[in-house]
Amino acid sequence: MIQKIIPLAPFSVKISIQKGVFMKLRNLSLILATIFLISCTNSNEIEQNKKMAGDFLNLALSENPKSAQPLTHTDFTFTFMGETEISNIPFDRDTYFDDWIPNVVGALLPNGITLTTTDMIADTNGVAVIMEGDAEGINGEYDNKYVFVYKFKDGKILSINEYNSDLLVATRLYKNQLVPLD
Length: 182
Fold this sequence. Notes:
Blueprint: E1 2-8, E2 11-17, H1 19-60, E3 72-80, E4 91-92, H2 93-108, E5 113-122, E6 126-137, E7 140-141, E8 145-153, E9 156-164, H3 166-173
Parallel strand pairs: 3-9
Antiparallel strand pairs: 1-2, 3-4, 5-6, 6-7, 6-8, 8-9
């Protein structure tokens, strides 16, 4: 039997614990401490991923888009998801910055776009960034809503899939018209 006196001002309490129970409590304490340390590490990684995801588009849509390139993994891919003529075409690390940003985004939104983050959902593997846009497209007001899904590898952005309203892309950026079926 293990006995320990725990001082509690102004009293002292004598606790008696069976040796087997003490070993179980010690093992449980070690397990809980390990879980706590892992959760702190995961929390830091999640916060780093959220910060990187938030910084990426700010840099990519700035005057110097290539300033975002160091945040990307060498196997980086970007895909604009949907059912438009620019959808589902993966861009690698070079073509994203050399083609997508200047020739697609720049051409369709010549006055730029303001993106406001409304929420982020994150874990250690990725971040979903929910955003609202404010822009003028080549065919009128283009205020789309977005979800950018980021995946990470080796502390870098491995991939981004962009989701938004195809309808706004088609009608505001490509001058397509809706035609009634009747």
